[in-house]
Amino acid sequence: MRILKKILFSFLVVVAFFSIVVLLLIFNLKPDYHGTKELPNLGAEVKVYYDSYGIPHIYSENERDAFRALGYVHAQDRLWQMELLRRIATGRLSEVFGKDLLATDKLFLSLGIDEHTKVTVANLDRDSKMVQLTEAYLDGVNAFVEKGPKPVEFYLTGIESEPFTLEDVYNTIGYMAFSFAMAHKTDPLLTRMRQQLGEEYLKDLPIDSDTSTVFIKNYKRNIADSISANMMSAVEKALKILPIPQFEGSNSWVIAPEKTKEGKVIFANDPHIGFSQPAVWYEAHIVTPTFEKYGYHLGGVPFPLLGHDRNLAYGLTMFENDDIDFYFEETNPSNKTEYKTEYGWEAYETITKTIKIKDDEDVSFSFKKSRHGPLLNGIADQILEDRPVAMSWLYTKLENEVMHGLYGMVQATNIKDFREALPNIHAPGLNVMYGDARGNVAWWATAKLYKMPDSVSTKFVLDGTTGKEEPLHFLDFSENPQAINPPWNYVYSANNQPDSIAGMLYPGYYLPENRAKRIEQLLAPKNDWDQQAVSKMILDVTSPVNTEVITGVIKSIDAAQFTEQQIEMIDLVNSWKGDYPLNSVAATFYHRCAFYVLKNVFEDELGPEQFRQFMDTHLLKREIAFGVKLHDSKWWDDVTTDDLVETQREILGKSVKEAWQSLVEDFGADYKKWTWDKVHTLEHGHPIGQIDALRSFFNVGPFPVIGSREVINNMSFPYDSTGFYHVGSGPSTRRVIDFSDVENSISILPTGQSGNPFSSHYRDQAEMYINGEFRKMMMNKEEIINSSESLLVLKPKN
Question: Number of structural domains, the chain?
């Protein structure tokens, strides 16, 4: 008994010791939202009031001090996120996570973002206000890096925090630009499909830009070969392993005074980005005697990509234009250092980079560049092709003034000034949405668009040897898609095809019409919109297109082949409204059927690997509704059955039966239990949360969640054979700004404001987000002070 007591006492001592260590960690490593701190280079005292959700409201006598304070408070809540974002473009993720990230580092180094940044920063005017405010922001970040407690992730990964530079800001912007692109997933795959299957198969895919029936309407007013599947698989895998989410899509609409109850503009925006923890956006409210902005910031970038004040509001969706082209090059058979052009042989540029790898030796690698860009062959250790493929990316080819564009948007006080800033954003392609207190509504597609020869499709790998498949000229910004105060009294974007304003359609990777159709369906007939109605609309989970798809399937199958229970289910789906509440059975059956239809239509021709690649493209999303209408396509035949030529009716019937059987195996024979909440879940994953023992501490969720792919409340997921839909991307924030009562505008984040797991604001909005709730974006100083959770005073360092 005495021995047992000693063991128990020793155990309790150990537990007590580790408890004290944990408490000390929590106390020392969490953000400090109160008290007084000294900040280098600060000109005057700055007060930061934190509201009950951890949003900083920064009051300063001048903009430079305000941005220094912003940098400091941003870093103390998001330094780990900022660290990862700046490392991507410079190939420094392996330094944190080891050799598993080597392929990703090689890919991003080959893109040349880091080299493009060096040239851009070297040519900056250091006396410009944009640069001065950016450097002030970095002063604040670095003050925290020097004196503040390192986030726990730095200790777990063993990396040291280093000062942030202007190059880090531009490299983060460069990563954002690439994460918007879709061509790297689609063009090489289509080229291989054309080579393997022929044009007859491709004509039945929605490849061209004009296959959509719902266009974003413009309204302007004055104010032959193959490419390695291994190569593209390697590029895709390199992107998927990123510990930082990619930008996926978005919704936004702005309603003019003529259609609102109070006669003022109402602005709504919910950019769709891969879910992660911490959430993408950091909210901050800055006020000086001459400047105010309530903004949403990307980690390490001083100017908010989304924002509003009392004069105007702006937000973003993805334009989805094609700004990446692939080119086949021809290497000189007698001199491997040269490649063919219309002017003769030119020398490849060879670039060598060194990558540091955690717990391993450094890796040096070399790649070649042609006039078009880096050769992808060999970038990720795949089998080298005889014919090189170069990637031409617009972002690194033109002068980079994206930060000037963001600065101009932030500083604008009216529609004229705002519009003048937009041509500076050459890439990524963005739909910039706008509304103001004067009653203006507008959207502009910001991108440097170019005209290709009429016979050239940028959806395939081009011939780089002749000069005949190069861009002819760039369009002037006035020829970009846009609508300013249109007579229908609203503007919107759901990543769908824009109408022509330049006598041409703009090549791109536009998303299907589902969300666009629903937005127009809801906006057009109603003329008394208010904040409550708009906030309900932003949570809408109905797809008018999906009901058309399932109706088309049911009309095409033979009911005689199904059991009585299966007929009951088919009748249930036939009367489905296309909505996605948690208790929906029809939603579960629809998506299980959709997967098996796609599998039975495409996998026999493409093979398992290319089918998986196809399923990860925007082309797939457009194909679902498009393909069901094609009754006589060659795709319906199963090429693995030599003696049979299957019809649409047979393939659809087979797919419905297989979907039914798979659900029986997963959930039992009672189809009434096949509810959406069992298959559709959201978990916000942290890079370190991939370790099972740390998952519950770093990750947030999982939660059953309403919504689906391509509804307004777009909770998107990949299709795979499991039949369980783990949501990968969706609204990164939901914002509704009503200019009839701008101080009571509303918003929500998916998890919380802080990226520090010891903060009380790490996950305090997660359940609100799942439940479709909102919180106020406070702008009234008296209310902010009276309701603040804490006050942090930043003083000049003596």
Answer: 2
